[in-house]
Amino acid sequence: MNARSMYQENILDHYRHPRNAGELPGAEAHTHLSNPLCGDEVDFYLNYDSAGRVADVRFTGRGCTIAVAASSMLSEKVKGMTKADVAKLSSSDITELLGVEINPARLKCATLGLEAVHKAVGGDR
Amino acid sequence: MFLAEAIKKDFPIFKHNPGLVYLDSSATSLKPQAVLDAERVYNEVCTANVHSGLYDIAVQATDLYEGAREKVRQFINAASTKEIIFTRNATESSNLVANTFGQRLGKSDAILITEAEHHANFLPWQKIRDERGCELRYLPILDDGNLDLAALPAMLTPNVKIVAVALMSNVLGIVNDVKTIIDKAHANGSVVLIDGAQAVPDMPVDVRALDADFLVFSGHKMLAPTGIGVLYGKEAILNDLPPFLRGGHMILEVSKEGATWNELPWKFEAGTPSIAAAIGFGAAIDYLQKIGMDNVWQHMSDLAAYAIPKLQAIPGLKVLGGALPPPPTPSRNKSGTGSQAGGEEKLPPPLQGGGRGGSARGAIFAFTIDGYHPHDIGTILAERGVAVRAGHHCAMPLHRRFGLPATTRASCHVYNTTADIDALIAGLEHVREVMA
């Protein structure tokens, strides 16, 4: 079994008190993604400033601890980033944010929010 | 309970993983030393291909392989080894039937399965529906997880050519009243395929007492190695079907013009089989027969009776299909093990009255806990050495029926004890502490 629990305080904190939670009506970008295998789903909302950087971000959804915590941490990270930089974020960035080794079976949970954000900056609504 | 910690000693995995609480036998079962030894003997002592070798070790290998087939025949009380086809697993077996029997179906025909089926007894029939244009119907489940047998007569119209149903659900643990389904189907002129993947490892199954036309099951769920499964089919039906896979071993003659097929069972065994795994399968059957399948089933029922009340006592926890059956009547199968019943028509205990009112129930528990995601439950349990499964368990339509994307599932076999259940309960209480 894992040497170190995935259920660290920082992850549990983001799960219990997700940052930037909520909708952003009229957002410039809004994407929805779900994982039918487990029922996790997430909506991401983004607004950009005149320089094309992420000015405001929100997310809603339901999911496991890792999915919610990763989305919450990601939402903090992307504030102020350009679309190009957001597009470059990878699953290892997510793992770094979470700060603990993620069981390969849970990687899809961790990257659900990232996929939604990638879809958003890619121009899909 | 007779199956004490002693059984665990037969399974080397517990030496490598002390303290392992393995509650995922519905996914795959652990392997006793005797099975591993049997495989190793083939690989070290008489490694040869089967059926056509003239030399000593080839004869030995063939004897062991065909000997395993005879053990399977006895285990399910089939009439002949011609009716025992080795496949890779239950999934391949159901695909074999769908792609041979199913290919004769046309637009005016219908197939009847249930909404609780595992994807292996679901998708092959959808393929036939899409390819052949026939209708695919789903017998519904009631809220308590039992099949809605009252709906059966209306769905069993004369154009239903085949009915396919699981004997025990891999999610609900409920034993379905397949005898009633088989009787009604036969009266209707339909054949019946029984998915025995979860049931055959846990209870005595007698194909002649049931009068099943097809039975599919997997070795790896019943203490045997991965890579070996069985299709049982009545000889007359199998003789009438074309081969599925084609290649070596399954022919009599081949020319540029065509080929003639080997007799049963080899007509359906193309290419070199999983010889080592089949021999291991034979040893697994020996191991289970020594315990006695009546006793295995008693153990499963006892674990279910122990576990379910404790699970349901946890706040917010619901076991799918969690109603326990009434205590069984004291009468037992005369012969002790259903598989040695010979020509006896009496059904073994779990199949008597199964589904008619108080259904029999195995040691499979799929549950939800309000406010906790199955992934979190499963992972926190895993971090404490308790192995369960989280997800849809290859039964998405069943989960959809209950409005759930996923559940957490614990399942038992011969090596599990009440101490394992206690560890599960303690782990679930720990989940609440972590997530609070």
What's the overall average pLDDT of chain A, rounded?
92
The helix count of chain A comes to: 6
| Mean pLDDT score of chain B | 92
Helix content of chain A: 40-55%
Q: Which pair has the most extensive contact?
A: A-B, 18 and 19 residues
Shape descriptor of chain B reads globular
Q: What's the total count of β strands of chain A? A: 3
Give structural notes:
The complex is a heterodimer of chains A (125) and B (436). With 125 residues, chain A is an alpha+beta fold. Chain A is 40% helix and 20% strand. Chain A is built from six helices and three strands. A three-stranded antiparallel β-sheet of chain A has the order 1-2-3, with helices on one face. In chain A, helix 1 (9-16) crosses helix 2 and helix 2 (65-78) crosses helix 4. Chain A is globular. Chain B is an alpha/beta fold and 436 residues long. In chain B, the strands form four sheets. Chain B has a seven-stranded mixed β-sheet with strand order 2-8-7-6-5-3-4, with helices on both faces. Chain B is globular and about 70 Å long. The interface between A and B is medium-sized, with 18 and 19 residues.
Keywords:
heterodimer; A: 125 residues; alpha+beta; three-stranded antiparallel β-sheet; 6 helices; 3 strands; 40% helix; 20% strand; B: 436 residues; alpha/beta; seven-stranded mixed β-sheet; four-stranded antiparallel β-sheet; 15 helices
